[in-house]
Design brief:
- The protein has ten helices and 15 strands.
- With 328 residues, it is an alpha/beta fold.
- The strands form three sheets. Strands 3, 4, 5, 6, 7, 14 and 15 form a seven-stranded mixed sheet that branches. A six-stranded parallel sheet has the order 10-9-8-11-12-13, with helices on both faces. A two-stranded antiparallel ribbon has the order 1-2.
């Protein structure tokens, strides 16, 4: 038996609860993992609260991330006792996820936990930090260097934004942070931001082109914010789009792309090839300051997840939330 957060469909509405399940209820897969830690992402919170139809079947165990130890394996890369982690692949949406004490998945979705990385730190990073690193890698592959000028990070107090600031600052970049919580300005400066701006300057409908302000950007917000970010990106700059906290729409203009040569880079963190995932996580292990990560991280038990999901969507959570799944 093991404990898990379970989403049920009750009278055509999602309902989340902490339940005790039997191993026989686990879904198909060739690797079974005893999950030690998970984390709470924006998508998980939408699923748990029922605010968005994230779960594609019921019952569903949410949680798009987890780390743990292999209990049983029929996959050639993994043996009993191996430490592994998972991000994405529809886990927590169409396949039972990581907000549980056990998970059974396709071994192709796993990668080894980087050598020297603590499981708790892996989930403090989670999909949010992994997405930040994928965004940074995409910008650098496109040609970005610190010499090009400042890099904007939107959603700066969220998981993606916080870790993006820390990674960029560690790489020698000048970082501009956009946030709706200006009272957190000092915190963002401690992470490495050189300048903090109010998100309201970006979140309303804007002009097709604005003053050129930043060489590149990592945007986890979407909608009008992304349109305005592109409109104020310098000529031949780059914008990595990796989130939709404000919305999925893109009410912008082609002007930044055809008049300034701005490049919009889409970041898909869900189904990256194995080699790319390993590279991203190895860089996170090497480049992310664990001391800063600790400042971003709070810890809760599995029993506290449902309440925390509502807090996250209300904008009341700073940084990262790690769930010790063995505590209920």
């Amino acid at each position: 038996m093991f404990n898990a957060i379970v989403i049920d469909n009750v009278e055509n509405a999602s309902q989340a609860s902490l339940q005790e399940l039997d191993d026989s209820q686990l879904p198909e897969g060739n690797v079974t993992v005893r999950v030690s830690h998970s984390t709470l992402n924006y998508k998980d919170a939408l699923c748990i609260t029922g605010r968005s139809p994230i779960a594609r079947r019921f019952p569903m165990v949410p949680g798009i991330d987890f780390v743990g130890v292999v209990e049983h394996s029929e996959h050639p890369l993994y043996s009993v006792g191996d430490a592994v982690l998972l991000n994405g692949w529809g886990v927590g949406e169409g396949h039972w996820g990581g907000l549980a004490q056990k998970a059974r998945v396709n071994g192709d979705w796993l990668i080894p936990l980087p050598e020297g990385m603590q499981p708790r730190h892996a989930m403090a990073i989670g999909t949010a930090g992994y997405t930040s690193m994928l965004s940074l890698i995409a910008l650098e592959r496109a040609g970005l260097t610190p010499q090009h000028g400042p890099v904007l990070v939107t959603g700066a107090n969220g998981g993606v934004g916080s870790i993006a600031i820390a990674l960029l600052a560690a790489g020698g970049y000048e970082v501009i942070a956009a946030t709706g919580r200006m009272q957190e300005q000092e915190h963002l400066i401690q992470l490495g931001a050189k300048e903090v701006i109010d998100r309201s300057t970006l979140s309303a409908p804007g002009k097709p082109l604005g003053k050129e302000r930043w060489a590149a950007a990592i945007d986890s917000v979407g909608s009008h914010t992304l349109a305005n970010v592109c409109a104020q990106t310098r000529a031949d700059g780059w914008v990595a789009a990796c989130g939709l906290a404000q919305g999925m729409d893109f009410p912008g203009s082609v002007a930044p792309f055809i008049l300034r040569g701005v490049s919009l880079l889409g970041i898909n963190s869900v189904t990256r090839p194995y080699a790319e995932r390993v590279v991203a996580w190895d860089r996170l292990q090497a480049e992310l300051d664990i001391g800063l990560l600790e400042k971003l991280t709070s810890d809760i038990s599995l029993a506290e997840v449902i309440g925390a999901a509502g807090d996250l969507l209300a904008g009341e959570v700073r940084g990262r939330v790690v769930i010790d799944t063995q505590q209920c």
